[in-house]
Design brief:
Layout: H1 7-18, E1 27-33, E2 36-41, H2 56-67
Antiparallel strand pairs: 1-2
Length: 69
């Protein structure tokens, strides 16, 4: 789907529709190949902790999404 207009965003939405838990993080698949996945986690207020840094659980969710693809 990467060659389609908005293909990466559409692919990400399909995956998030199948696993709604991953809708909690603003992420997009950038590259997906056998044995390799690259995601972009957007720096939004919704993934920040009380210290103003990216929350560890948001990073764990992104890693789990990449690992499960």
């Amino acid at each position: 789907m990467a060659d389609l207009p908005f293909g990466k965003a559409l692919f990400t939405r399909v995956v998030q529709w199948q696993a709604p838990y991953f809708r909690t993080i603003p992420v997009r698949f950038e590259q997906l190949e056998p044995g390799h996945a690259r995601l972009r986690l957007y720096d939004r207020w919704s993934v920040h902790n009380h210290l103003g840094t990216v929350h560890a659980i948001a990073l764990c969710n992104a890693a789990e999404l990449a690992g499960g693809s």
